[in-house]
Amino acid sequence: MKRRLFSLLLPALLLGVPASASVDDAHSFAMEAAAPYVEQGFIVREDYYNGEVKSGQKLMVRHQLFKGNEYAFWLGTANDKCKLEIQIFDEKNKAVHIAPTMGTGDNFTSVRVNPPKTGTYTVVFSVTSAIDKGVFWALAYGYR
């Protein structure tokens, strides 16, 4: 009887075990960073960037920003004990972000920017793990 009970409970126990980190978890942390911004009137865009990368590798995305809007970018990771960095540059590689801002935690960070002019900007970011391995990340953004 004990063996049968164990075989019935085993699947339930396994479902309760947390899964390994994923891009979806990283996006959840990015959305956690966005929460205080939403309270201040920021609109979160549905699309976002994501992936898995080697620890410490710098990534960049090009993004169209419009003068007159204020933007926020939220970087999240599903991996524990990571250092997250994010910066925004104009076409002359001049930093234009407002740093540091609200919304920094163990698994996320954020920056804001008021673009001085409409144009394509470069968002440069990295996630460095205390354990040298690949890390999952998600970069979301919003505006007001």
Describe this structure in words.
By secondary structure, this protein is an alpha+beta fold. The chain has one domain: Jelly Rolls (Sandwich), CATH 2.60.120. The chain contains 2 helices and 9 strands, in the order H-H-E-E-E-E-E-E-E-E-E. The protein has helices at residues 2-16, 23-39, and strands at 43-44, 49-54, 59-65, 71-77, 82-89, 97-98, 108-113, 119-129, 134-143. It is globular and about 40 Å long. The chain starts with a helix and ends with a strand. Mean pLDDT is 81; it is low at 1-19.
Summed up, the helix count is 2
The percent of residues in helical segments reads 10-25%
Assigned CATH architecture: Sandwich
The major β-sheet equals:
6 strands, antiparallel
- Tally of extended strands? 9
What is the CATH first-level class name? Answer: Mainly Beta
Structural class by SSE content = alpha+beta
Distance between the termini: 62 Å
How would you sum up the global shape?
globular
- The figure for the number of domains is 1
Would you list the SSEs in sequence order as H and E? HHEEEEEEEEE
Could you name the CATH topology?
A: Jelly Rolls
Break the fold down into its secondary structure elements and pairings.
Elements: H1 2-16, H2 23-39, E1 43-44, E2 49-54, E3 59-65, E4 71-77, E5 82-89, E6 97-98, E7 108-113, E8 119-129, E9 134-143
Antiparallel strand pairs: 1-9, 2-9, 3-8, 4-7, 4-9, 5-8, 6-7
